[in-house]
Amino acid sequence: MANIQSSPDSRITDAIQFWRLVNDSDSMNRSEALNDIRFAAGDQWPVEIQNSRNLEARPCLTINKIDAYVRQVTNQQRMTRPRIKVHPVNNDADYKIAQIIEGITRHIEVNSNADTAYDTAFDYAVRMGWGYWRVNTRYVREDSFDQEIYIDTIDNPFTVYFDPNSVLPDGSDAERVLVTTLMDKHRFRQEYPGANDGASFTQRSTGDDTASWVTKEDIRLAEYFYVKRVKTKLLQLSNGQTVYADTPDLDQRLLASGVQVVGTRESYRKRVHWCKMTAMEVLEEAVLPGRWIPIVPCYGAMVIIDDKRKKYGLVRFAKDPQRMYNFWRTSMTESVALAPKAKWLLAEGQDEGHEQEWALANQKSYPILRYKQKDTEGNPAPTPTRLQPEAPPVGIMESAAAISADLQMVIGIMDPNQLPSGNISGKALAGQQNQVDLSNFHFYDNLSRSIRHTGKIILDLIPKIYDTERVVRIIGADGTPDMVTLNHPVQTAEGIMKVLNDVTVGEYDVVMDTGPAFQTKRQQAVEAMMPLMAKEEIDRKRTRLNSSHT
Predict the structure, then answer these.
(1) CB atoms < 10 A from the CB of 33, how many?
(2) pLDDT tens, 425-448?
(3) 176 burial type by CB count under 10 A (0-12 exposed, 13-18 middle, 19+ buried)
(4) Residues 151 and 108 sit within 8 Å (Cβ to Cβ)
(5) SS3 letters for 452-487?
């Protein structure tokens, strides 16, 4: 990446305009999503009601049932993670190479802790409607020229400004993406010595959004991804391959290989550009090797209303039942707390000499309570009796139970205590669980689409990153690691040079493998075979017994 220190150019203007565009077009989604996150974290009482009750010293209880339902959906995803599988799709591709590429993909996921990136984005998608992760490339060491592919976590989805014109569920059609972060100016000067830290930056007019890019202590950095399409001609070669007409040294390469051009058509070359900038200057820039912007969204639910996309998660429509549940539980607790304690009914003078014991009878557990059998006038008095307080209002308890059922219906996850019980088969139990899972399966399915797009980005990068001879680790479907030499040239017995494990040729595609993992499938197979083996053993014993009788 080249370091650049120049005056602001058109890319900075485009980035800031794009930032404003996303802020304007997606402001409602962002505002509602932020409220969803706060609500799921326990901030569930309206501010005015909470302040009023605090002034009156009245309780505001929060029984957060939503977080438990969210964790039920996210933890179920962790138990059955979608997995990337690679298939060959043309004559130049090979099944063995597809298995190697698939093993490299698993190595990339393990090496970069991709499960953390997936889980973080999926958790945000369930809670508020969307999350992100990114595909990155970095050098393996400070003293190496070899690069590795990484899947990195984006722990704050509000820092990503995604193309509002993107309509595909995996975000593969995005043309522009902006990722921003605030950096302390002291750290900024250390990482970019000589760069403009905004000391001379002034707000041009009241309400100018660019002023939020520079504050007294911080400066906003932005990574701007944008796609450029350059018109060119696509050439069809006699060996079946295609090449762009503006490829460097194309004539010499065709002459040396003896290949001829058999067809042409108008096309375009797509390039993904990246630059890191402030509001004053571009700090770094590069042309990325892949065909897609390496920021992958994971969506929850989405609906189009008046040509605007409304994105939401599990929390959005569960907030009202949760608020009502909190209110009724608070009212019931308040009613019980304010109810008078159980009192003792006794005649005047019966507590003579034991006044302290009777005064604290509702606070301390005395083994005995002494009393006089006569009142102050000397007449016989009955045994003291306790007056039971009024029970909590039945209506409050019934309302809380009904609202809890409403909350379950809105979320689509039923209480196991309300499911049919008794002596039912395992198949029926599995059917009940499957019915519960289907109500929120769209979250898992959207995650699978996003991981599939991630696999396609990795497939596109592997021939460009792993283009030299090198030894890499691959991981099998059962988790077993192995070492493979990529792009290894060897000479056959006929004297022909051949490249083994060449991942730079051929075309491959991604197919998602969902459901139980390899170990779970093996355990299920064992459990399914055990009854058959037991039956076979019983049949053998029966056959031997019949033979002995004969």
Answers:
(1) 24
(2) 656 556 556 665 678 889 999 999
(3) buried
(4) yes
(5) HHHHHHHHHHHHHHCCCCEEEEEECCCCCEEEEEEC
